[in-house]
Amino acid sequence: MTVISSTKNLEALSFTLVTEFDADVKRVWQLWEDPRQLERWWGPPTWPATFEQLDFQPGGNAAYYMTGPDGTKARGWWRFTSIQAPNRLELDDGFADENGEHVEAVGITRMVVLLEDIDDRTRMTVHSTFESEEQMQQMVDMGMEEGMKEAAGQIDALLAEHSHA
Question: What is the pLDDT of residues 90-102, one digit of tens each?
Fold first, then answer.
């Protein structure tokens, strides 16, 4: 995987991660629609994800948790707002409590994922937009940028496994 760029823009309240993979767009799209593949890379290596629900359709929801090295569970949720397979995915992303209820205090991050064919490779752009500077700073302080890079860094091994299947 090649990380092309990782950009924080405080004025636009956004964070954008651009990566490229040696796989076609349809193959990279599967990493989002299949919960078992999503678990293999969503979340950095030290905080692996478990998806308890993934209703991959517009209006559908996902519920997941990431387990830290000490056993701590950080819960999250997604609401899919638009799915245009295999090139564009839009979702709202937020935190959840131990009962799976949305934690409103943290706010919602809006994510847009774009997959583009670039010379037999796939460029994946993940663009996140925040509600406020405070929310964005809180995410940065929690290690979101480094975590996203580490998470995306796990994708090549997953793609390599399935290309030989």
Answer: 999 999 999 888 9
Nearest to 124 by CA among 22, 46, 51: 22
Residues 19, 113: contact at Cβ < 8 Å? no
Euclidean distance between CA atoms 121 and 56, whole angstroms: 24
Residue 28 burial by Cβ neighbours in a 10 Å radius (0-12, 13-18, 19+):
buried
Residue 48: strand, helix, or coil: coil
Instruction: Centre a 10 Å sphere on the Cβ of residue 52 and count the other Cβ atoms it contains.
Output: 11
Q: Which domains does the chain have, with CATH numbers?
A: 30-123 (3.30.530.20)
Q: What is the pLDDT of residues 98-127, one digit of tens each?
A: 988 899 888 999 999 999 999 989 999 999
- Please, what is the end-to-end C-alpha distance for the chain in angstroms? 20
Name the DSSP letter for residue 35. Answer: H
CA 58 to chain CA centroid, nearest Å? 17
Which is it for the CA torsion 93, 97, 101, 105, positive or negative?
Answer: negative
- Per-residue model confidence (pLDDT) at position 165: 46
